[in-house]
Amino acid sequence: MKRVTRMLPALVALVAATACAAESVPAPRAQAIGVPTIQAAAIAAPAKKVKLDIADITPMGEKTEKVGVGFPIIVTFDRDVKDKAAVEGLLDVESEKPVDGAWRWVSQRKVIYRTKTFWKPYQKVLFTARLSELPGNTAAKDVSRRFAVGSQNISVVDTRKHQMKVYRNGKLAKKIPISAGRGGLVKNGVDVYLTTSGTHLTMGKKAVETMTSSWLGVTDPKDPRYYKEEIPWAVRISDSGEYVHQSAGYYQYLGRSNQSHGCVRATPAGAKWFYTIAQRGDVVKIKGTKRKLQWNNGWSYWQLNWTQWQKGSALKR
């Protein structure tokens, strides 16, 4: 059965790493949902135990952040889910501007919601988990979170023309000269110096990110391959260490050739501007390289077509 987001009332983030890998992989901010305390009556029987609860929901709610039009809803439970179909049937997504969507289980504890097409911008989306309706789980509290979708930011990176075009709400907002991965370092059959081609989503950002050569196993400063750099305006787009960030010098290559270790290097002004507008869940489409982005590399769920995505649901369709 196809799950469809519904109209609300009026108020209504593996594979081989790249050399751009950060010193530490930033995880999406987690907001744990505590197990409710059951108050016993004066002569009460032992309190019922909660069999299943939610440990984390990503992204954050409407009061904390605005999200991009590609954003997924990632739900992590506090233990393995035995009856995935029963639990999935209790997860609801309602949007002001309806669009088809479906859940996909990626582990025994984690399920991800993605829409068939991108969300419409400037709306609210409500997620609700009715866990109290799960048999034997009546002690659980139902959980909900409302998300705020911001502007439609879709960027297209052409690694052959060495340019990134950023479209906001359907209009070209800026052209930024870039330098992508140069290639030339093969590990386990993968050229990890190539930027991955495909539909990425922005997963987070840092004004300054520390990037090192430790992913190569190079930690000795005397090694000629060693590096440790503080990189400004870094917007993460995969789990394998790819970012859109300010080029650390080498400005002569921007707009002319690919010289990076896998990231998308941009001009100082362009990188800062992109960092400023970036929302988690914004779309970054990269084309022109022979290295394909894997669907489970970060939030790259749009690499699966709609039929493939739906096959990850526990519900019969």
From TrEMBL:
The active site is at 245 (proton donor/acceptor), 263 (nucleophile). SUPFAM superfamilies: L,D-transpeptidase catalytic domain-like. It holds the Pfam family Big_10. GO terms for cellular component: extracellular region. GO terms for molecular function: acyltransferase activity; peptidoglycan L,D-transpeptidase activity. The keyword Transferase applies. Gene3D superfamilies: 2.60.40.3710, L,D-transpeptidase catalytic domain-like. Residues 1-21 form the signal peptide. Coiled coil: none annotated. Residues 153-287 form the L,D-TPase catalytic domain. It comes from the Bacteria. PANTHER family: L,D-TRANSPEPTIDASE (PTHR30582), L,D-TRANSPEPTIDASE YCIB-RELATED (PTHR30582:SF2). This is L,D-transpeptidase catalytic domain.
